[in-house]
Amino acid sequence: MNNRNDENLKELFERFVGADEAQSAVEDFAAAQRILSEHPVPGPDKELIAAIKSEIAETVRRSKERAFRRMAYKLVPVAAVFIVLAVVSIKMFVGNGGPETITYASITPMPASVWVSDDVAADDFELAVLTAQIDELEGQVLTLELGEDSGNGRSAVTELEVELVAINSDFW
Amino acid sequence: MTNSDDLALIIDGCKAGSGESFSRLVDIYASRLYGYFYRLTGNRELSDELLSELFVKLVVKIGSYKGGAFESWLFKIATNIFHDYLRSKQRRKKLLEVRKKELKSKIIEPKRSESDRIDKLQIQIKKLNADTRELIMLRFYSQLSLKEMAEMRGEPMGTTMSKLHRGLKRLRELME
Q1: Nearest to residue B120, comparing CAs of B54, B52, B171, B49?
Q2: B66-89 tens-digit pLDDT
Q3: Cβ within 8 Å of A, B 95-114
Q4: Is the ipTM of this complex over 0.90?
Q5: Which domains does chain B have, with CATH numbers?
């Protein structure tokens, strides 16, 4: 640190004025210094120093509070964005049925309703076709049994029964 | 006297918001700064006020201290506070009121004491022009080098030295 005690006044003054004037300046400096030292100023009261320290402590405390609030004001929006994103993500995830539901639904070969349904034919188009064919054959059998067939009735019935057995075997 | 390393640690503490470090700065500089204000204003109450203002401002401004001569930085703030005070009409009015009170108290209590010696110098100092008075007090209380004073005042070193020499010579004549 540059302290005036380290200064060589004579040398400094000699840069600007002659040696005699520089010497005179040094003497004036020393005399003024002596006069000021002989006339000390009253020091600050202890009460004043205590009050200043107390005020500083209060200012430091307020300053720290302000700094904390500033930091909080910066962090709160960021935290809020994270929370909103997290909530939205969870809602979207749950809205899609969640991982278990999705997996369960995708690997199930047939809706559960089919297994509990009494009307199997209504749940499957092929079953419906087969059921219609069986119904038709049953109708023909009934016609023959009632003697409504004009041709070779006995053999026709046998043929129909064979056909029914075949359809039944194909299906199952 | 606090050495540079100790002072650097104290300043670091202040920057970190340590009340203890600020208290140490008060202990180190309060007397010199008070003397500076007192010699410029000649009034104790005002010096009290300016000193308090300075240290509170210091808490706010310490973050802007980027190294270099701390005394130079500190006394620059002190000088600015004093200039602010001079600009303040309200404070001038207050000063007049305080001086009136002082005058009354002197009439009531005319005892001679140490303060009379102090006042003799104070009276002579007032005969100097404001800039010279400020320069002398800065030299005496800040303990800055002439180079630092010139830098702080934003003028060539030769100019500062010349003004200071003239002022000190005049003060010497007045006092002797």
Answers
A1: B171
A2: 888 899 999 999 999 999 988 886
A3: none
A4: no
A5: 1-90 (1.10.1740.10), 98-176 (1.10.10.10)
